[in-house]
Each structure stands twice: as C-alpha cells, then as structure tokens.
Design brief:
Elements: H1 2-29, H2 44-51, H3 56-71, H4 77-104, E1 111-114, H5 116-130, H6 135-148, H7 162-170, E2 176-179, E3 185-188, H8 192-205, H9 215-239, H10 254-262, H11 271-288, H12 294-303, H13 306-328, H14 350-377
Parallel strand pairs: 1-3
Antiparallel strand pairs: 2-3
Helix pairs in contact: 1-3, 1-11, 1-12, 1-13, 1-14, 3-8, 4-5, 4-13, 5-8, 6-8, 9-11, 13-14
C-alpha cells in the first residue's frame, strides 16, 4: 500500500517537474523582454506559458513536506530532526553554490540567488525545530502563516533597518537585494515563512499517506480540500479586498480581464496564489492513485528523483544555451540580465522554446531512469540527499 501511495506522489511531482522545465527553458532561451505576466505587453499564450509554471514551486514544497512525513515512518523523531536539518542545510547550500553558478555563469559568485531550494531547505529546518510539538500545533502554525501573512502586505520597509531586512527576507521578499561589500550581493527571490507554511501543511497532509490509512478516505479528503481552496480563491479574488497585494482589474478585452483575475502574486506567495495553485494539485493527487498508462510511468520516473532532475535539467539547459551561442556565432557578452546570464543577441520564438523543452525532457529520461534504479538497489547514505 505504501509503495502505491509513493508512486501517486511521484506521478504528480514528476508532472510538475516537467512543467518546471518549460519555465527554465524559457528563462534561458526565449527572447529577452518584459515579464510574461505584464498584461500591457504579453500575449495570451505567453502569459499561460509562464502562469502554468506557477504550480511548480508550491507543489514541490508541499510534497517535500509530505515526503518528510513519510520519512518519519522509518525514523525516530530525533533521527528525522537530524535528517531534516542536514537536508535543509544541503538545499540552502545548493542554491548558493550550484544554482547561483548555473544561473549567473559567474565563478566569482558576485550574485548569490536564493530561490526555491533555499526556501524549502529553511522550511525543513523550521519543521525540524517543531517536531517536538503535536501535529495540530504544526498545522496551526502553517495555517496561521498561510492565511495571515498578507496582513503585512502594506508594511513599510527601510533598506537600512535590520528589522525591516529580516521582515523582507522571511515574509515579504519581493526580489530583495542585500549587498555584500562593493561587488557582491544576495538576491532573495523566495521569502521563507510563506513557503514554509506550505511545507508544514504538507507534513501534516503526509499523515494521509501513512501505512494503514484508508485510500478512499484519503482521496475524498484530498478532493474536498482541493475544491475548497479553489472556491476560496474564486470568492476572495472576486471580492478583491484581501489575500493578494495586487487586485485584479478590468482590461480592454474579456480574455485579458480573465488573465488579470488569474494573475495572483507569487513573490511572496499570496494566500490567493497558494489557493489557486494548491487547490488543483490536491484534486490531482486525489486522482493520481488511479492513473495508469505510459504518461504516468514517465512522470513517475522523474518524480522519483526530484533533486537529481532539478540540478541535471538546469545543467542541461545551460549547456544547450552555450552550444546555441556558439552555433549562432555570438560573443559571450551579457545582455545585462543580473539573474540569468544570457548572451546579447540570443533568443528564440516561443514555438522554438516549446520544441527545445520537449528535447530537454526526452534527453533526461534515460539518466533519471538509471538513477532511480540505482537508488533503489543501493543503500549509500548520500543517496537520500541527491
């Protein structure tokens, strides 16, 4: 029973990681320009190319919490605490040392980027500190942050204030930049506590997947919870008073008005952003245990090796980026993007981005299948971290 439940989680996680790859291929290879979510400059297809990837980070963090709960079935509380602290520290270091390098192509590490791995890792450390408390307290902490952090949307910030800096970093990060001397900086893209609330709720949700829990009851709960979050999003978004710092507005066309309605704030993740993304994911989880066929098998292959896939797909896209620069005969001169290094003059239309996305996913299938089998047949301690 437990094996089947893990497979259903891997199917959803794998699907989300495939979608995530589209976002990163677009980051590295699409024409540079304004944000795809800028309603003044975007197109419907470009908007949805970016919007669909909003589901990735919340799902990734939620299922990290579920996985932590499942790991707790095989460990004592003390062992789980130690594992989460080590795993969380490793994820933070991965953002600082690996992801920052892949994105910036700067061996001098002048720009350190803190993204989803940092937020997930810090969340694991916070969860480790809460393990001594009952699950209902963990649930209450997670729900309180999730439901209430938008009360601080209008809180004033002072770049020179330590308290304001901590508030920005942990609750209201909006691309916050912290200088480290004259030539280095840390860019915080993912605020810690809102993302931690998702991980904490995932940990509590993981109880549904423990050995012996009735499958039908689990599926009904997931479906009910997912539909409730979707309804909450629609109601609060319609009222336009609370849950997101950027209210929707009427646009020149009905289609763009609909886009405005969907354009919830990701950084930091608003209550409405989390309802909009996690609601459908919970509904999908309720059906995932009954999914059959080749597509679900492929998703399961990727979902079984999330960290391995995450690092490998970014490396693959960066190598592809460099090869295309060489093919086009462009100089290795930055176009000025401070976060994702890109050669000036490189960029492909959206249809080409989609083809390159499929190419990357297909290329990574065999390495991920091999590594998944290797993990299953070997008991090395370091495999639980990669």
């Amino acid at each position: 029973m437990l094996k089947e439940r893990i497979h259903s989680i891997d199917i959803v996680r794998g699907l989300i990681m495939i979608i995530m790859t589209l976002d990163h291929v677009r980051d590295f290879l699409h024409y540079p320009g304004p944000s795809p979510l800028n309603l003044k400059t975007t197109s419907v297809i470009l908007f949805f190319t970016r919007w669909i990837t909003h589901f990735c980070a919340p799902t990734f963090v939620l299922l990290a919490g579920v996985s932590a709960s499942l790991a707790g079935q095989r460990r004592s509380k003390k062992q789980l605490r130690e594992f989460l602290i080590k795993r969380g520290t490793w994820l933070i270091l991965s953002d600082l040392l690996l992801i920052s390098l892949i994105f910036s192509l700067d061996l001098g590490y002048h720009v350190l980027v803190l993204e989803v791995l940092w937020a997930t890792g810090f969340g694991m450390i916070i969860l480790a500190l809460l393990l001594a408390t009952p699950r209902w307290i963990i649930a209450a902490v997670g729900a309180s942050i999730l439901l209430g952090h938008n009360l601080l949307d209008q809180a004033p910030t002072d770049p020179q204030s330590l308290a304001s800096g901590l508030l920005t970093t942990f609750l209201t990060a909006r691309g916050s930049v912290f200088p480290l001397g004259d030539h280095r900086m840390v860019v915080v893209l993912y605020s810690v506590l809102p993302w931690t609330s998702i991980l904490l709720m995932g940990y509590v949700l993981g109880n549904l997947y423990h050995t012996g829990f009735n499958a039908q009851r689990r599926q009904k709960f997931l479906k009910f919870a997912g539909l409730t979050l979707i309804a909450l999003f629609i109601i609060l978004r319609s009222v336009n008073l609370y849950g997101d710092p950027s209210p929707w507005s009427h646009q020149p066309t009905p289609s763009f008005t609909f886009l405005s309605f969907l354009n919830a704030t990701k950084q930091p993740p608003s209550l409405l952003f989390m309802c909009m993304t996690l609601g459908p994911v919970l509904v999908l989880l309720s059906f995932a245990e009954r999914l059959k066929g080749q597509v679900s098998k492929v998703c399961r292959i990727f979902g079984n090796v999330p960290y391995f896939y995450f690092i490998l797909h970014l490396c693959t896209i960066r190598v592809l980026n460099i090869l295309l620069i060489l093919k086009e005969g462009l100089p290795f001169k930055s176009n000025g993007d401070p976060l994702v290094w890109q050669a000036e003059g490189l960029g492909y239309p959206l249809w080409a981005v989609y083809l390159l996305w499929v190419f990357v996913v297909v290329t990574l299938y065999l390495p991920c299948r091999w590594y998944g089998k290797y993990k299953k047949t070997n008991g090395h301690w370091w495999l639980s971290y990669i």
